[in-house]
Every structure is written in structure tokens, then in C-alpha cells.
Amino acid sequence: MSDYSLTTFGASGELTQVRYALTAVGNGETCLGIRAKNGVVIACEKKITTPLIDESSIHKVEKIAPYLGVTYSGIGPDFSAVLCKARKDVQIYHSRYQDRITPFMLCKQVADLFQEFTQSGGVRPFGIGMIVAGYDEEHGPQIFQIEASGTFYCWKATALGKQGTQAKGFLEKRFSDDLDIEDAIHTAILTLKDSFEGELTDKNIEIGVIRTTDPNKEFKILTQSEIRDYLREVE
User: Fold this and answer.
1) What CATH number is associated with residue 80?
2) Which domain holds residue 222?
3) Distances in Å between the alpha carbon of 115 and those of 18, 23, 70, 130, 166?
């Protein structure tokens, strides 16, 4: 019975539907985030199932606010709904307090929504995991991972998706606290390249970056031309 009921614990003490949601995340495309000493980078695979699809219409890295970006693994329409809610939360906070919401506070609000959907009737858990990159005026650049269960943590480097475990192992070997943002971008590409099936090109990868050298600390999604240059640098 617990296989079908969202709010009933199984014999092993877990919510089965939440485990299934985490499985959906584990079946998604690999995405990752890395915090450098002078910025943050998030990146994600963007597998195109047929050459007939216009790849520019598919986005795996999105901007939440000028200083916040996100990528995900899992079910695309679920991500679209949560992204819309997150953007609305940013605007509500700004209109109420005339201030920027911190990455921690935004991730907590999203995580609270995820958790609510694990114990409410008539709904199902979100089948996505998210990696949020942001800049905090007090704590600097930050990376947060939000899981389908409602759990969220601040990370130095993390990965989600089908090759998430392998990518984390790769990051553990290469990460250091004094990593420069340009080296972090190279590491992100090499990590995805290590587990990618086929050739990694500017059309099947997306990258977003925040650099502390930028006066506005703006989250920028790299263009295909910029990604091509980085791909050549890591060859």
C-alpha cells in the first residue's frame, strides 16, 4: 500500500514515493556546480534526442534573478513550475523589503515547497533535483543543492543526475579551496566530458557563471561561442 500512498511510511521507514522521485532525478541528465574562490559555475548536459529539434529552445541552465542561477536534473515540466515559483518569490521579497533575497533564503523557500509536497494529499513529490548558484553579500559566492525530499545543503562542489556519483568522484579529486573561476569552468567541462556518451559540443552543454570581479556580481549564461572557446582550451 505504501508504494501508492504518498503519506504512508513503508516497512523500512521511508516514503516510497519520495524514493521514486529521487530515482527520477537519478535518471536525468548530469548537472553540477562548483564554488571557486572568486565565483561559482554551474553546468549541465543538454542531450538532444533528434537533430530535428532546435537546441536553442531547450534550456537546462536558467536565471532566477540577476545574481541567482539554477540548473536541474529530472522532469523538465516540474522544473518549469518550480522556476516560476522561485522567480515570483524573489519579486515578492524585493517588493516587501526593498532588498535582495539571499541564496540561502530562496533555497529554503523552495525546499519548504518540496517538503510540503511529500506530506500533502492529492499531490506528488517534484521529480527534480536543483543546483542553485548565487552571490551573497555577506558570504560571497555560494552553491546549494535542493533534493526532491526537501533537503538542501550548501556545497563546495556537487553533481546530480545519471552520472552524478561518477561526477562527484571526479570533482573530489580535482577540487581545491583556492580554485580560480576559470579553472572551475574547465573542471566543470572536464567532469561532464568524463561521463558524457559521445562528443561534448557547444550544442549539448550549458554553463552559467558568477564572477566576483564583476561589479554587479551578475549570473551570466555563456553563449555557444564562449563555450566553444572553453572546449578548445580543455582539449
Assistant:
1) 3.60.20.10
2) 16-234
3) 10, 17, 19, 14, 27
Contact 127, 21 (CB under 8 A): yes
Domain-located, residue 8: no
CB 182 within 8 A of CB 12: no
From the number of C-beta atoms within 10 Å of its C-beta (0-12, 13-18, 19+), residue 73 rates as buried
pLDDT tens digit sequence for 102-122? 999 999 999 999 999 998 888
Q: Is residue 154 part of a domain?
A: yes
Share above pLDDT 70 across residues of the chain, in percent, rounded to a whole number: 97
Residue type, 192: L
Number of domains the chain is built from: 1
Q: Is residue 9 situated within a structural domain?
A: no
Residue partners of 186: CB distance under 8 A and separation at least 6 = 230, 233, 234
Reported as a single tens digit per residue, the pLDDT across 12-70 is 888 888 999 999 999 999 999 999 999 999 999 998 888 888 888 889 999 999 999 99
Distance CA 51, CA 115 (A): 38
CA distance 43 to 61: 7
On whether residue 56 sits in a domain, the answer given is yes
Sheet holding 205-211, edge to edge: 157-160, 31-36, 39-45, 205-211, 219-221
pTM for the predicted model, two decimal places: 0.94
For residue 138, the one-letter residue type is E
